[in-house]
Amino acid sequence: MDKPNRFRLHPDVRAALFLAGTIAFFAVFAIPMGLGNAINTLMNTAYRILMETVFYIMAIAVIAGALSSVLTEFGVVNLLNKLLSPLMRPLFGMPGASALGVVSTYLSDNPAILTLADDKKFRRYFKAYQIPALTNLGTAFGMGLIVTSFMLGLVGKMSRGVGLAALCGNVGAVVGAIVSTRLMLLFMKKAYGPDAPALEEPDQEDAQTVCSKHRGLLHVLDALMEGGKKGVDLGLAIIPGVLIICSVVLMLTNGKPAEGYSGAAYEGIALLPKLADALGFVLKPLFGFSSAEALAVPVTALGSAGAALGLIPKFAREGLIGPNDLAVFTAICMCWSGYLSTHVSMMEVLGCSEHTGKAILCHTLGGLCAGVAAHWLFMLLFRLLI
Known about the structure:
By secondary structure, this protein is mainly α. It is built from 19 helices and no strands. The longest helix is centred in the N-terminal third of the chain and has 39 residues, at 35-73.
């Protein structure tokens, strides 16, 4: 017989504490913004995210799902697993097939890896403890091509070192991905064990069997449609998490507009940048930022990499940042890539929501390591090459 929990709260007390916490949470926004403006901003921000971000993510998921379905049907994933396992296992502790997830997220965004993870033919290469770590691995390379292209586009605004900064930033993101993924695997191996397969009933079809059944163009079309449908389902599944978490994070990140609060989308109280300023004495030496204002970029990247990128041209015009800052921005914007607003929904879709806190902790440390690695690598190479 279990011993009674002497610290268990009475239901009425628990309800009262929850109500008090809810009121305190809304008061954080309502006091500076006004209750009406805070509620309107929350609703308008959620709507804008739905229209401008979520449907874009769904489109990515559909395309990625269609592509991954074709690649698995015709044995490409099997080939990648054999060729890249000697690289992926020592670095990330993941099978070679996970390289396809890295490529898909680098070319698009974090949730692209979910469509792969939902495919049984992809999952058969993984152990159960490796599946949750796909969230960390995929997020670390999210929007990589977009971020890198954006940084290279700043060549005209800075005299030299932009290309080197982008390169060092990508290397830094790889370092962050290794740290984040490896830490997550340590937690997950304890939770799931080292030997449990990701599939309870492993798919026994090998690449030769699959290819022998193909029906030419019809088989390709069937695979495309099947994978695209999975993308739609995943796109719908992430809507609640992205809207709720991202809206709150952006309101904590963005500040008061010059004309004052009006209840419009993307207004906020700039609490996270203030916390970053308080920690500037630690963060600035680690990243080598040229100014305190530069701290706003990695903080904003917690909620949205796109929003973080939008700050950089203004800082460049005002001379507040240099090439070293771009290297750190590239690494952190890639590695964090708005993970606070996507990790919750991604872990839920993977069926691992109970480990979301561990995933966020591991990725926070991974992003910090990415920025530090990019900073010191840039400083070394800049002195040697430029």
